[in-house]
Every structure is written in structure tokens, then in C-alpha cells.
Amino acid sequence: MKPFVVIRKHENQDNVALQSLIREFVMSGAWDAFVSCLFREITLQLIVLGWALMFIFFGIPLYMCAIAIPCVVLLIWFTVYGSYYNKSTELALRPSKLCWVAEIYEPMLSAASSKAQASGIERCFSDRPGTEVEQEVGRMRKKIVGTISCRSHLAMDNAGFITRLAVSPKYALSPVTDYLIQRVLQHATDSQLYAVETVTSECDQDVREIYLKIGFNIRQVYHKQIIGNTLKVMKSQLGIDLHEWNQNREEINVEVPIE
């Protein structure tokens, strides 16, 4: 038996699992963001400032002022971790009227790791498992491993915007992410929208690559200010024309679940 995925609409009993999933996904990027911040100009500025304050105002010997380095590193770690924790809590508790979940069915007795099983997924169903796997379902366990939401675009008419994309870090990012994005695009097409957009940050490189593989284009790259001009985060606005996507979807080697 091979694992497969079911993409279905969100239900009320999924709320607890989804909140935990979103928190886990967002917090999984905290370490990469922390490492990225260590090599920014603001880190050196804080070290020099802390060194100067301890030496000039507190009279600490110059060689002992080196303690400013680990203090700044700890400060950056707590700041990044705190911001990611707040972001994960906000996303987890933010209501969404249009939301899908990815539910994986995998054999109960399997020696393979979760990522190995997820990377071997070849089948995707919508709402319920297909008739050809009904006999297998009784011998498989299911678990929610991904979610995605879509709302109306705030700046464009007749367009959608992807939000709250999250996939369990214990499973491979692809192909679960592919199926979730494809499901939103299918819904947008059925709703006669002409475009779908989303935004990724500089630490979401893997997710951005999946968007680009599916057919999204980079509309613009901009920097969001966190602390004035000193600390900025690069954002990428991605978009796809649904008419063009429907014309080229046969070239994409991903099965789109249809309701």
C-alpha cells in the first residue's frame, strides 16, 4: 500500500489540529531567520554600541566588553523567536472562510520515515478517497499534514490571494504543497477569477520555488521595513494568470483533484 493525499474542505473539528500545524510550520523557519539576521549590518551595529556603552558609561575593561557579542546574539534570538511566535499565533487564530486541508493516508505499519512516505505520494483525491482505495483505507491511518486558505484580493478586482499555507515539517514540502496550491487554483478557475497572487518572504525559498514550478511569476520584489532603514525583510509578490495556467496545466506533472 502506498500513501495518498485527500484535499478536502476545512471542518470545525479540524481547528485544533490546524492551529498546531500552523504554529509548527511557522516556527520551523525561526532558525533560518535567526541565522540570516546574524549576518546583517544591524548585528555589528548593536555589538559596537553595546561595547561602547559598557566601556564608556560603566567603566568595564575593554577586553571584558566582548561579552556584548553573546548578549547581542541572545537578544537577536529572542527577538526573532518572539516575532515568529506572535506571527504563528496570529495566523493560527485568524479565521478563514475558505480553507482546505491536506489529509495523508499512510500504512499503519511502515518502517519508512514520514518524509520518505510523503515524497512517494502519487495519488491525490478530492473530499474523499477514491473507490479504488476503499479496501485499503481500513488498514491506513490518516493525519492532517497541510492547509491553505484563499481570500479576495484587497487591491485587485476578481482576483484571489493565497494565505495560511502550511505543511507539517515532519513531511516533505512537496508534493503536498503542490496539491494544495493546485486545489486553490482549481477553485479560483471554477469561480471565474482571472488571477491569484500571494507573497513569500526571503526565508521561504523552498515554498517560492514550488510556486514558480507550478507557473507563478514574480510580479515584484520589495523590502518591508522592520526597524527603519536598518532592518528590512525582502518580500516577493507572486502571481499567476488563470487563463494561461489552464492552457499550460497539461505540462505540469501534478494531478489536480477535482470535486
Automatic annotation (TrEMBL):
Entry keywords, A to Z: Membrane, Transferase, Transmembrane, Transmembrane helix
InterPro entries in the cross-refs: Acyl_CoA_acyltransferase, GNAT_dom, NAT_camello-type
Coiled coil regions, renumbered to chain: none
Lineage, uppermost ranks: Eukaryota, Metazoa, Ecdysozoa, Arthropoda, Hexapoda
PANTHER family from the UniProt entry: GNAT FAMILY N-ACETYLTRANSFERASE, LD18367P
MF (Gene Ontology): N-acetyltransferase activity
UniProt name for this protein: N-acetyltransferase domain-containing protein
Domain N-acetyltransferase residue range list: 91-239
